[in-house]
């Protein structure tokens, strides 16, 4: 009994720590702090926050404004409930306030660094050793128009959980993502052993931020020109690809991307898989997106032969695109479904049949139930 209670307490503190590092909204961090304190933010939890969360935030990646807001919210809540605020917490807050003016000149206040920690699917409440992957991402701290691609969307969290839950689908495959945004999906694909990861986006500032994120995760690879990338041994590429402008020569499967030879002449092409997270939201872009998907899935149908590696219940020789999406506007989604059907694409909702494990249980702001997972193939 005592062991179970101690494990529970450890798990709550772990979740609080991970939520803070992931830059979860202050209300979510406070909710976890309250839970860890058994209903209130006790001096013990305050010390934990100071030492294990704020104290370990890597220098140079500190989100000073975010940390100051969290401290302020905690102090207000504890004071209001007439509990004790520790001297150390007051001191930390005072120091941060005095540095605030300097910080806002030195730091990018429009971006925040988020450490997204995926728990291992075998996680059983024991310790943080069971964190399988931590992705560090520079994200926009506002959701204003123009920053769409620099924000982290729930669909990419879901698609990442899917990749980490079913690694065999993606390992040894060449994976091509549309509208990659901050690049989280690419980091997960690299982690599960994709043979090649090609991330694309049609927004140049998003692409710049995406490359910065690949560097932050030691995956920096910069190849935009297909001719150059053919010879590149780099595993992750970030490419500009606008769905409106995309032509066949911008797409994999149309390039001679042979990856190896068997015997004298037979070639092996890495099996191509396509992905997208939260890319079905603008009715103006939908027809262009469907055109690109159709080109990808059609062309690969004749050439994307499996190299015979790793069997899996999802493995198929049919070219596949996995798309995670939140249906915010049913009309836009219907427009996608109709355009897909007109182009002879089959769209199957596999959210329940291929449900990923919950690897982000500490992320209270992430509503997994809002995300649908679609499997798109060519009608046979
Ligand atoms: C809502 S964001 C999703 C980003 C990321 N996949 C995620 O889920 O966190 C949509 C992404 O698609 C890109 N995008 C939107 N319209 C596009 C178009 N017409 N061509 C290429 N990329 C586009 C945006 O720049 C943005 O990065």
Automatic annotation (TrEMBL):
This is FAM86 N-terminal domain-containing protein. The lineage of its organism: Eukaryota, Viridiplantae, Streptophyta, Embryophyta, Tracheophyta. It comes from Paspalum notatum var. saurae. Pfam families: Methyltransf_16. InterPro entries: Methyltransf_16, SAM-dependent_MTases_sf.
């Amino acid at each position: 009994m005592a062991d179970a209670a101690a494990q529970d307490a450890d798990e709550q503190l772990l979740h609080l720590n991970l939520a803070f590092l992931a830059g979860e909204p202050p209300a979510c961090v406070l909710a976890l702090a309250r839970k860890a304190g058994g209903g209130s933010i006790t001096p013990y939890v305050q010390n934990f926050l100071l030492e294990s969360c704020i104290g370990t935030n890597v220098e140079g990646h500190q989100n000073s404004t975010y940390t100051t807001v969290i401290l302020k919210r905690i102090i207000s809540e504890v004071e209001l409930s007439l509990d004790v605020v520790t001297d150390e917490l007051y001191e930390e807050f005072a120091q941060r306030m005095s540095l605030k003016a300097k910080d806002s000149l030195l730091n990018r206040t429009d971006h925040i660094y988020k450490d997204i920690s995926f728990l291992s699917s075998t996680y059983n409440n024991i310790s943080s050793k069971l964190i399988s992957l931590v992705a560090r991402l520079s994200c926009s701290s506002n959701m204003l128009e123009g920053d769409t691609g620099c924000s982290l969307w729930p669909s990419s969290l879901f698609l990442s959980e899917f990749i980490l839950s079913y690694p065999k689908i993606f390992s040894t495959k060449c994976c091509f993502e549309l509208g990659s945004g901050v690049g989280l999906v690419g980091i997960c694909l690299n982690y599960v052993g994709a043979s090649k990861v090609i991330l694309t986006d049609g927004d140049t500032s998003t692409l710049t931020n995406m490359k910065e994120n690949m560097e932050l995760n030691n995956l920096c690879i910069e190849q935009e020109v297909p001719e150059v990338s053919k010879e590149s041994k780099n595993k992750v590429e970030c490419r500009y690809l606008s769905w409106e402008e995309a032509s066949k020569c911008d797409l994999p499967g149309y390039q001679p991307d042979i990856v190896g030879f068997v015997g004298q002449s037979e070639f092996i092409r890495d099996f191509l898989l396509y992905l997208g997270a939260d890319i079905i939201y603008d009715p103006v872009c939908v027809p262009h997106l469907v055109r690109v998907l159709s080109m990808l899935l059609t062309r690969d149908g004749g050439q994307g032969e499996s190299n015979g590696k790793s069997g899996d219940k999802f493995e198929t020789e049919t070219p596949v695109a996995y798309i995670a999406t939140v249906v915010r506007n049913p009309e836009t989604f219907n427009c996608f479904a109709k355009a897909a059907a007109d182009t002879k694409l089959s769209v199957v909702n596999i959210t329940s049949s291929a449900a990923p494990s919950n690897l982000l249980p500490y992320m209270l702001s992430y509503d997994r139930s809002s995300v649908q997972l679609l499997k798109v193939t060519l009608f046979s």
